[in-house]
Design brief:
The protein is mainly alpha-helical. It contains 4 helices and no strands.
Length: 107
């Protein structure tokens, strides 16, 4: 039977795990920055709201994310909502860019 850890051991383990999480967060942010950079390259190629919203592509991405999550032992119910948020934020960024471009004076 496992004995409960003393408070010092418990705190040391918490600190070690939090350090691991901090390192993973740095990796996630770096990957989000890379993904966002690619979206910014793509957004200049899109000419209307339908291309930006691209519902079929969104569904493809969400389906893929769900499969990848399961393949990696992560519940779909965690991965898919996170990606829905990422997609919404990046879609809003693209729409703002499109609307700003539409307001620019034509040459």
């Amino acid at each position: 039977m496992n004995q409960p850890m003393n408070p010092i051991e418990n705190q040391e383990q918490l600190t070690a795990h939090r350090t691991q999480i901090d390192a993973i967060d740095r990796e996630i942010i770096a990957l989000l920055a890379k993904r966002t950079g690619i979206v910014k390259q793509i957004m200049v190629l899109k000419t209307d709201e339908e291309q930006i919203r691209s519902c079929d592509r969104v569904q493809q991405v969400l389906d893929k994310v769900g499969r990848l999550a399961e393949e990696n032992g992560l519940e779909r119910t965690i991965a898919v909502p996170i990606y829905e948020t990422i997609i919404k934020v990046l879609t809003d960024m693209q729409l703002a860019h499109l609307h700003a471009r539409e307001l620019e004076p034509k040459a």
